[in-house]
Amino acid sequence: MTAKPHPLFLGIDTGGTYTDAVLWSEEGGPKGKVLAKAKSLTTRHDLAVGIAGAVDAVLQQSGTDPAAIKLVSMSTTLATNALVEGQGGRVALVMIGFSEADLARDGLKTALGTDPVVFCPGGHDVHGNAAKLDLSGLEAALPELGGSVSGFAVCAYFATRNPAHELAARDLIRERTGLPVTASHELSAKLGGPRRALTTLLNARLISMIDRLVAATEGFLAKRGIAAPLMVVRGDGALVSAAFARQRPIETILSGPAASLVGARHMTGLDDAMVSDIGGTTTDVAVLDGGRPRLDPEGATVGGFRTMVEAVAMRTFGLGGDSEITLEDGALDPKILLGPRRLVPLALAGMVHGEAVRSELERQLRAPNPGRMDGRFALRTGVPDRLAAGLTAPEAKLYEAIGATPLALDRLLSSNAQNATLNRLVARGLVHICGFTPSDAAHVLGKQANWDAATARLGAELFARRRDGRGQAIAATPEAIAERVLVTLTRWSAEYILETAFAEDGLDGAATVAHALVQRAVDGHPGIARFTVALDRPVIGLGASAPLHYAGLPPLVGNGCIVPEDTDVANALGAVVGQVRVSAEARVSQPKEGLFRLASGQTVRDFTEEAKAIEAAEADVRAIAAERAKDAGTDSAEIDVATEFKVSIVEGQRMFIEAHVVAVASGRPRIAV
């Protein structure tokens, strides 16, 4: 009898720079097998182009029939980037039972910007008792709003204890406008109206954006004959169906980092680890505890806004392979400084532009003395001209002088004022700076070979000529300065990993302590007060450059460092090996003695016995979680229910205050048959 072939799974990660794809099979044991992997530049104007580039490459590598793929899962930084960049549709916020003063809390007014807001009387108290609802103001505003916004966000006072007024407003808006409506009780069961309103507002803004991503992916899959369910990674690392994500796009913030953590655990089998993911621009550090990412208990912060979305507790640092390299000012023996700005590596510029870059570097090397702008170039990023609107006269003049070919800064700039102008153009995303980076240092030492090593070496020679406080060259050879740069990057990585560990332990001054400990480890001078530090868990290094930069980590962090074989596509792999996980919550309160009020889902019920109310609450959350798990994409959910009681003891008697009941449903996503 012929063995039944293992189903194939396609993982996609749509990042800010690259879109990754991985083809994975359950063949070969618990870790399965990566059959093919590929990268393609993310195409923001049409996401399907970048997705097609990566997916077509893995299909071609593996010789796979697209019809054999039974599940597609994706992670994305699209929602995160949109919030950071202030993008999203124009939406109307409906506040029921709140006053205008509430807009000043939790950054809600800043997030709202110029979008319209409607206040309506109503809402509930902490026990779910209703105030008088009046939606006449909303009803009067709907004809105008229906033609000027892309959706609505509705938040009512204490809607988590009774959502009736949110449901009434939602139904009215849908009936009159037909536009998407997000109600706050659908996203969070936590108290804190303004922050819940903020979360709801951001969700409503993101709906059309995530809808475009899902539509682009589904359209591409259909063209390739891949008839498989499409899943999306949430910010806590769990998988949900694309339809589920379309309704709750806010939950996909930090999707990419969460997927990398899931991928890290899958590749290593480690339940407890520090995970450090180094890219070109940033390093993301997080903690694995008991096989799951540690979550931020306060909710994810993105773009300066603290939401109520459960997401990984991730610390991001401006350190990567393409980090800007500078020297400490005014020191006799200046330290090398890295980041946080990203530069285009000289090796990459040399590969693309060739002699135009190398001839300028050689000219600068022929000068008798080093110049402060040696080894630096400017070129346009290639964004549409409309994004350059609003430039000042000096900015417009400088921008006009910069083209698509790198231009040496010592030819472009004639004053410090122009340098400040150039930095503003860089901050606007209109201009790139090219310069010497850790990626160039790796090319000089033969540890990286994907770009032009000759250009990198010229850049290293120029940097090595720079003077210290004594007027001496900071390094004797290009190789010497390259080695110092790579050692510094590893050292800073260790500091950031330790800083994250200290911060997770609740220690103040985490950055200062981490720096001092790594300094002593490197210098070998323990000092009068002798102390050492060691992580209680190993580090998992992720990212294409992790094998290079993390080789020297173990002695600095006091534990091992594991770099998995497929570390370069950890996000895409994490997207495809994760599990569906959803939850449902209910609360039982006692508005008055002998009355137990259950708020679960969209219903509120009263009981005269505590035990009966708790029994009903547990049955409700189990049923709601099962239904949500089905909607989220699994038919085989296991459900765990936990009940937490708040009680007081008065004269030896137990007094019931409140009970919080939570059901968590988890299971593997359903696959195509």
Structural account:
Helix 11 packs across helix 13 (416-427). This protein is 37% helix and 24% strand. The strands form seven sheets. A six-stranded mixed beta sheet has the order 3-2-1-4-9-10, with helices on both faces. Strands 11, 12, 13, 16, 23 and 24 form a six-stranded mixed beta sheet that branches. It has a five-stranded antiparallel beta sheet with strand order 27-26-25-29-28. It is of the alpha/beta class and 673 residues long. Strand 7, helix 5 (164-177) and strand 8 (181-183) form a beta-alpha-beta unit. The protein is globular, with a radius of gyration of 28 Å. It is built from 21 helices and 29 strands. The mean pLDDT is 88.
The count of β-strands is 29
Give the helix proportion (percent range).
25-40%
Summarize the main sheet. 6 strands, mixed
Give the amount of beta strand, in percent.
15-25%
Envelope shape: globular
**Structural class of the secondary structure composition?**
alpha/beta
> How big is the Rg?
28 Å
Discrete helix count: 21
> Order of strands across the biggest sheet?
3-2-1-4-9-10
Mean pLDDT: 88
- Termini separation: 20 Å
Low-confidence spans: none
